[in-house]
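G., before I forget:
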Amino acid sequence: MAGVSPAAASNLAQQTPSPFSFSVASTRWSSRPSIHLSNVFLRFLALVFSFVSALSLAAVSPNKETQFTDYPEFIYCFIVSILSFIYSVFQLFKGICDIAHRGILMSDMISDYTSFILDQLVGYVLISSSSMAIPVIRHAQLTGSLWRAAITSTTISFVTSLIFATCTLLSGYKLCKRIIW
Amino acid sequence: MAGVSPAAASNLAQQTPSPFSFSVASTRWSSRPSIHLSNVFLRFLALVFSFVSALSLAAVSPNKETQFTDYPEFIYCFIVSILSFIYSVFQLFKGICDIAHRGILMSDMISDYTSFILDQLVGYVLISSSSMAIPVIRHAQLTGSLWRAAITSTTISFVTSLIFATCTLLSGYKLCKRIIW
C-alpha cells in the first residue's frame, strides 16, 4: 500500500473495505499454506481437548457409588466428546495429507462442503452438551470425584466448541472462495 | 460481467463447480432482492418465535406456587429470548429499510460484519439456553402450567436457534462476497 497513489488507494478502499483483503489480493496458492497450517493447528487443539474431555469423565474411579453413566446428560457429553475426537482425528489426518500431497482422501469440493457443515454441527452439539451438563452439576448430589470430572469435562467441551466455531469460520471462508472463484 | 468473452466464461465455469455459482455469475445487484427477501422472512420468523418463547414463560399464572423465576436456567432462557427478540426487531427493521431505501441505518460494511458475528453468537446462546433448560424440565418437580410453558419455550428456542443458524449462513455469504469482491 506504500506506493499507491491516494486516488487509487481510496478507490481500492471502496471496493474491498476489509482487513482480510490481502489474502484475496494475493493468489490462491500463496495464501494456502498459512490457512492450512492454522487449520491443522486448530484441529490438533480440538483433538487434544475432546480427548481430555472424554477421558476426564471416563477416568472416574469405577469403585465409587455414582458413575457418570447414571446421568444421561453426562453420557451425552461423553458421546459428543468421543465423536468430536474422531472427527478431529479425521480432519487432522486430512489436513496433514493436504499439506504433504495436496488431497489424496477426497476431492477438494466435497471436503470443503462437508467440513463446513460438520464443523458447524459439531460446534452446536458441543455447546449444547456442555450447557446441558451445567444444571446437573448444580442440582444433582454428585460425589467429589464425579463432580470434579464433570466440571473439567464441561469446561473443556466449552473451549472445544469455541475452537470448532473458529474452524467453522476458516472452512466457511474456504467454501466461499470455492463458490465465488 | 456482461462483456466477458466465451473462453473466459467457460474458464470461469470450470473454476466454480458449485450449484450456487449462478448468484455469483449474475451481477451483485440483481442477486440482491432474493437474498434480501429471504433475509427479511427469516428475521420475521425469528422475531415471532423469540416472542412466543419469552411469552410462554412470562404468561405462567403468577398465582401458582412455583414461578419460572425460581429456576436460573429458565431466567437465562427468558433473557436470551428477549435479547433475540430485540435483535430480530432491529434486523427486520434494517432489512425493510434496505429493501426500501438501500441502507439508511449504518454502512453496509459495518452491518455485514456485525450481522454475521451477532447471528453466530445469538444462535449459539439460544442452543445453549434451550439445552440448559432440558435437565431442569426432567429433574425438577414442576407444576403443570410451568412444565408446559417450559417445554413450549425450550422447543421454540431450539427452532429459533435453527433459524439463526440459517441467518448466519446468509450473512456469512454476504460477508464473504464483501471480503472477496
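Residues 35-180 of chain A form one domain. The radius of gyration of chain A is 21 Å.

More on Monday.
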